[in-house]
Amino acid sequence: MSPTNPRSPRPGAPPHGWADALLALLGLVLPVTCVGCGAPDRAVCPHCRAALAAEPQRRRLVAGVRLDAAFAYRDTVRALVLELKLRGRTDLVPVLAPRFGALVDRALADVPGALLVRVPPSRTSARRRGFDPVVLLLRRAQGAGPAVRARRRSCRAPRGALRRVRPPTPATGLPGPTGHRAHGQKERTALERVEATVGTLRAAHVTGRDVVVVDDVVTTGVTMAEAVRAVRAAGGRVVRCVALAEVEE
Ligand SMILES: [Zn+2]
Question: Is 56-170+186-246 a domain of CATH 3.40.1130?
Answer without folding.
Answer: no
